[in-house]
Design goal:
By secondary structure, this protein is α+β, with helices and mostly antiparallel strands. It contains 21 helices and 7 strands.
């Protein structure tokens, strides 16, 4: 056996220093790795020699990449080339579009840990509409309330948590709680930044999708990403133009659906207001989910054909099924997750959540997540702490003012009106998640250290999941609750207790 570290991420400025000393070098590109690895399937030479050959003949490596990717259709070789992008000066709304892509890595400026300034993006659509003064006046009022709220919330949070306030090591945590509730007042136009790591195949997809996006900000981002990538690796980022499928399908479907559903039918009244629309609804779940997961476990570990395992499981009593599940759970610690066979149990939730809450849900990219636009008619989420410091009325007045501005901007600037909406405004989300991934969400987002909004939504999903998977879901819960959950089932604490945060 032999393992060789073939490459790793290097800061671009370090590469530029190398180029200054060796200006003729062409091999400082990830394209050589793609070309070398593509040859593994047909060239018997050791892979180190294939890499050496690609580095010595970069033009030939680039031609090979184009042939393999463009003519032969083997896009997977582009996944061996990885890019790191610094992205700054983009709106919170644009960041949501960037982070839709599953197979990428993102680290984003946190509005929970960093005190915000007053920076925001003014979209071109707003400028062209002639409504920039209305837009900026509204944004400035939101930012002013953010600063006023933070000034009141910080001492309130410290006073409400005297034990934590007595520990200087936990002051940053308490300060973060004040920031995270104050941020509900700021807009989706607020500037942010992130680090993006992406392989060439997914970067190409991102660029192509962005080229078809209606937002001027996203189209500008598309051009910058494409230019940066082509400068370094022109042979593996090839298909970057908008396609009719990406550019036209959504609008075409919307128009056809309105035509079909509107013809001779009475449209249902629109549900309005948070009181009539729960934050979490279970739409559907795998029937007989506990049985199916046990059958999958028998298939993997018991050597049965799946149908035979299903038949055997159906004949067991609840007590016997529970004993099988406990065998799986007995050695599980708070940092462990159930085996992959739990992915055969699937749940679909409709969530009505604030932008602040959605910012955390979207990080769970192994789920299937589809969304509607933000909709002011769904109301806004008011953090309880804002009510507690006597600023609930001021907050709701700001939301009402924002709603009026949104209505005007919607008429004049279309979908760009969403930039003026706040982190408190809501959207509907359809989340399809397997039980194994829900364990991950529950451990992380139901924990006492999690933000209250996502904690409430995660607890709602876990409660509904336990009703459908009463055996497979018995250990759902935050990591802080895990020892007590385990003790109730097994009569003892687990071997490892999570540290307090």
């Amino acid at each position: 056996m032999k393992v060789v570290l073939a490459g790793y991420n290097v800061d671009r400025e370090a590469l530029d220093e190398v180029r200054r000393f060796a200006p003729g070098r062409l091999d400082l590109t990830p394209e050589t790795l793609s070309a070398a690895y593509a040859r593994i399937s047909r060239d018997p030479r050791p892979v180190e020699e294939l890499r050496q050959a690609a580095r010595s003949e970069v033009d030939k490596a680039r031609r090979s990449n184009r042939t393999i990717i463009f003519k032969m259709g083997h896009h997977s070789v582009a996944e061996h080339a990885v890019f790191n992008f610094d992205i700054g000066g983009v709106s919170r709304l644009a960041i949501e579009e960037i982070e839709k892509f599953r197979l990428c890595s993102f680290t984003e400026k946190s509005q929970r840990y960093i005190k915000l300034g007053d920076d925001y993006v003014v979209p071109e659509e707003i400028v062209r509409s002639g409504k920039r003064p209305l837009f900026e006046t509204t944004i400035r009022a939101q930012n002013a309330l953010y600063h006023a709220l933070y000034a009141k919330l910080k001492p309130h949070v410290f006073a409400a948590n005297p034990e934590a306030a007595a520990d200087p090591g936990r002051h940053a945590l308490l300060d973060g709680w004040a920031k995270e509730d104050a941020r509900y007042a700021v807009s989706l136009a607020t500037e942010g930044q992130l680090g993006l790591t992406v392989n060439a195949r997914n970067l190409e997809l991102m660029i192509r999708r962005f080229a078809a996006h209606p937002s001027a900000e996203i189209q500008a981002l598309n051009r910058m990403l494409a230019e940066e990538a082509r400068r370094v690796a022109p042979s593996i980022v090839l298909f970057t133009e908008a396609t009719p499928f990406d550019a036209e399908t959504a609008a075409s479907f919307r128009e056809r659906a309105e035509d079909v559903l509107g013809r001779g039918r009475t449209r249902p009244a629109r549900v309005r207001g948070p009181a009539r629309e729960p934050a979490v609804r279970l739409i559907e779940a795998t029937p007989d989910g506990d049985d199916r997961i046990l059958a999958a476990l028998l298939h993997a570990f018991g050597g049965r054909a799946y149908d035979r395992g299903r038949a055997e499981i159906r004949r067991l009593s609840v007590r016997e099924k529970r004993a099988l599940f406990l065998t799986v759970f007995e050695r599980m610690e708070f940092y462990d997750f159930p085996p992959r066979e739990f992915e055969h149990g699937v749940l679909t939730f409709e969530l009505t959540v604030s932008a602040s809450c959605f910012a955390q849900i979207k990080r769970h990219r192994m789920a299937t997540l589809t969304v509607q636009d933000y909709d002011p008619s769904l109301g806004a989420t008011v953090p309880p702490s804002i009510e507690a410091v006597g600023e609930g009325s001021a907050f709701r007045e700001l939301i009402a003012r924002t709603g009026l501005a949104y209505a005007v901007l919607k008429e004049e600037a279309g979908t760009a009106a969403a930039y003026v909406l706040t982190n408190a405004h809501r959207r509907r989300v359809l989340l399809k998640v397997n039980l194994r991934e829900l364990y991950h969400i529950s451990r992380l987002r139901e924990d006492a250290s999690a933000q209250w909004d996502i904690r409430r939504v995660s607890a709602g999903m876990a409660r509904l999941a336990r009703a459908r998977f009463p055996l497979a879901g018995i250990l759902l819960g935050g990591k802080d609750a895990y020892p007590e959950l385990y003790r109730k089932i097994f009569g003892r604490l687990p071997a490892v207790v999570p540290p307090k945060t």
